[in-house]
């Protein structure tokens, strides 16, 4: 803790948002350059730069929207570049966000050490070294276990070497909520829709990656501490609720849909609904054909996609805590309470305003991107624009089929949206926390009529 | 002012929200019963009750969505019932909202009389009598002027008696932002798209009705006071900006659209864009064919429809001030300011939370209604559900053609949405303001990770 504070004091002139944005931009550009090399593609021609840039952005921002089919287009080298971008992008973001949260948390709350300590149970971390080591430990153990299970299952369908490679690739891709796959033909995991091993393993990888380091660490420390932080409690309860809600809703809404549930066994239908519920937040693989889902299911999925996963996780979206703060605020207001209370804890005004700003910017970005897409890429159904914009903002990677049909301007727009969707919420959070300063004088109060 | 306070003290046990909801429900039921009488329709058979209920709700909530064509379905008696519902619903709401705002404004701000006085310039109103008289004066003068201009113009196309009746009907309908018309075939005002007299007169009626009594009164008093309230300044600047933005955007987005702008002269194109911009907030008449507009234009219109007009006006939506407070909050947050400042005035936390709650409930209602419509009324384009839900919530009355095709459950849903859209934002505002009470004890602060 002392070292953390020391670092802030020493490097006060370093802007963490700028570091993050610059780091990601450089990583994406290096990736795009590598992917446009002849060696990166199977046909030896390399990818046009815009498509390479799209793929590199999608991988680094762990989105999974693709303009070319990953498995059949890229050489082993190209696939390893993508896998590296996913791992660096996912892990880097998780580390950075958790670190910044620790530092900024301390910074705004120098007088409130106890609150922060209780909020994230990070009192053991006295510096970035331990934090990074712990994140690497979690990531390593989880990705290894996932790869093992997947490789065993894949070995029934393919040679053992390929099965291991597929196991590693899909474990890393899904723990990082990246949504990339090697199975070909843009079909994602649809051929494994009723396979419990694949479905449940990948659901577990996605969920662990998407819940965030703070929560994983809190659960890991539970043996010692015997208590969970407010953040962890909110994350666990809300994540489970959202997943169950999504599964039940999608199951009920697709029951009569012959195009999706028609060919499936009852088990396959349940697994399919579960998988689409989990993957909407915001992993991006799919086992059901997205373009054939009912409008109602697509709306449920867009709702889940917009919320996304945990702060400081590999998932995107406005984040679960943001959503919960919105809910709590509206509920407190309607009940006429002065304080916004969650789990017997009062949320300070600053957190409410931050959540509100993140959500509003999210709405604005999705609406704006949908608007521009409907101009630059005419001739599609409206819901395809909305779904694509939500998917890109939430770094989800699901598509109704628009991605491969995008015009160059549309591709550029989605590239920017993935970037903004991945870095935006955290950057806004940092900007708000960092720059907030007590006003030297307060303006007189004004009153206006609302509602 | 003293009488106002006295009224609050005496009638503290009366719940204004309940009065409002009950009053509207009774008015709607009476209207529906009258419209289902044989004498109400031209064919002498009366309307089925559900359709009568839909029409009565649409008229009372000044929406304008119709399941039957007003002009060709109803007898003179039926049309006068509709006109009465519009006038009572529109005027009643405007009076009630302005009155409640005065009272509640006083109630929360007993210590802040000066603030409120400056906020709405209502210091001359010592009781509801003067308020009602002034509202009736404004309404009478504006509706009479509108009727006169319209009747003169209509007299070129029809016998003078019919022209006067049409002038009166369309003046009242449009000042109340009701969106009903007698011109037949669900065509609304499309045949007058390039007629400057009709277009500009109706735009003026809509704008005056939708800006709200507080602003009208403030402008009226300007001769004496020589200053405008914060509320009025915000309303004027934002209303003009939104109208200009809508006009320019719609004009540019429809320029290449042969179905809408194709048959029009350059003047007709400008007038058409202006009219659709004005009418989206939330009058509901149309001169361009809504179903043929581009997706981008429809999005712009949904944006305007959701925002709507002024508080305590005949318009619906979340209201202009709510939108401005959202904007100001996000802007202040991103700039790292502690206070939310508009026109050098600081907004108290309560106003921000109220605006935020109204907006979130609005989003939730629109999303929920879109979701249910996509289940109960399958087989349409997704944007038709979204547009219909936004239109009903905003009490706009524009439709892409879904209204007449609605299933009975869909009709019931839209009835409820119009009701919630008309009364919801104000009711939420009242509930929040009334019940807010200082907490007797504050929970300990909690911290969680956002973004
Ligand atoms: K993803
Ligand atoms: K209307």
From TrEMBL, chains A, B:
<dbReference type="GO" id="GO:0015379">
    <property type="term" value="F:potassium:chloride symporter activity"/>
</dbReference>
<feature type="transmembrane region" description="Helical">
    <location>
        <begin position="298"/>
        <end position="331"/>
    </location>
</feature>
<keyword id="KW-0813">Transport</keyword>
<keyword id="KW-0812">Transmembrane</keyword>
<dbReference type="InterPro" id="IPR003445">
    <property type="entry name" value="Cat_transpt"/>
</dbReference>
<keyword id="KW-0472">Membrane</keyword>
<feature type="transmembrane region" description="Helical">
    <location>
        <begin position="49"/>
        <end position="68"/>
    </location>
</feature>
<keyword id="KW-1133">Transmembrane helix</keyword>
<feature type="transmembrane region" description="Helical">
    <location>
        <begin position="409"/>
        <end position="433"/>
    </location>
</feature>
<feature type="transmembrane region" description="Helical">
    <location>
        <begin position="20"/>
        <end position="37"/>
    </location>
</feature>
<protein>
    <submittedName>
        <fullName>Trk family potassium uptake protein</fullName>
    </submittedName>
</protein>
<feature type="transmembrane region" description="Helical">
    <location>
        <begin position="197"/>
        <end position="220"/>
    </location>
</feature>
<feature type="transmembrane region" description="Helical">
    <location>
        <begin position="232"/>
        <end position="253"/>
    </location>
</feature>
<dbReference type="GO" id="GO:0005886">
    <property type="term" value="C:plasma membrane"/>
</dbReference>
<keyword id="KW-0406">Ion transport</keyword>
<dbReference type="Pfam" id="PF02386">
    <property type="entry name" value="TrkH"/>
</dbReference>
<feature type="transmembrane region" description="Helical">
    <location>
        <begin position="80"/>
        <end position="104"/>
    </location>
</feature>
<feature type="transmembrane region" description="Helical">
    <location>
        <begin position="135"/>
        <end position="156"/>
    </location>
</feature>
<keyword id="KW-0630">Potassium</keyword>
<feature type="transmembrane region" description="Helical">
    <location>
        <begin position="351"/>
        <end position="375"/>
    </location>
</feature>
<dbReference type="InterPro" id="IPR004772">
    <property type="entry name" value="TrkH"/>
</dbReference>
<keyword id="KW-0633">Potassium transport</keyword>
<keyword id="KW-1003">Cell membrane</keyword>
